[in-house]
Design goal:
The chain is mainly alpha-helical. Helix content is 86%, strand content 0%.
């Protein structure tokens, strides 16, 4: 393949990657806009408030739970060979997910006493527990986009 053909293929691949990332971002934003009225209608005002507070808490706790190790993946794995980078990614992923699962388990078990303190309402224990289950999911999502 000639160098001009290679550059053209790289440009096409780059354009396709940028387009795909843009579509994923737009769909993610639209999902929130579309689901917002559905969730608030199904839950009612009080439960929706509990949901928003719990999601906010999980958003703050997920980087702590994942030990923020995914931030260093790009920096340190770029200088490694592909096989070594793969091993590093798997190690970081394992440690982050285990830490996320541990925090989720602790918060799930302590949901009953924590919910009145954090959310100011006893009725939100179930919603809080459901949100706590999102901690490992959030950690895994951040690892996949690192």
């Amino acid at each position: 393949m000639a160098p001009a053909d290679t550059r053209h293929a790289v440009r096409r691949r780059f354009a396709a990657d940028v387009l795909f990332a843009g579509v994923v971002t737009v769909v993610g934003k639209l999902r929130g806009i579309i689901l917002l009225p559905v969730i608030s209608k199904m839950m009612g005002e009080a439960k929706y408030g509990v949901w928003v507070q719990a999601i906010g808490l999980i958003t703050l706790l997920a980087p702590i739970a994942g030990l923020n190790l995914y931030q260093s993946l790009i920096r340190f794995s770029s200088a490694e060979s592909a096989a070594q980078a793969r091993r590093t990614y798997l190690r970081v992923g394992r440690v982050s997910l285990l830490a996320g699962l541990a925090l989720a388990a602790v918060l799930y078990a302590a949901a009953a006493p924590l919910t009145p303190i954090i959310l100011g309402e006893d009725a939100g224990v179930t919603v809080f527990r459901l949100c706590v289950l999102l901690v490992p999911v959030s950690v895994a999502a951040k690892l996949n986009f690192a």
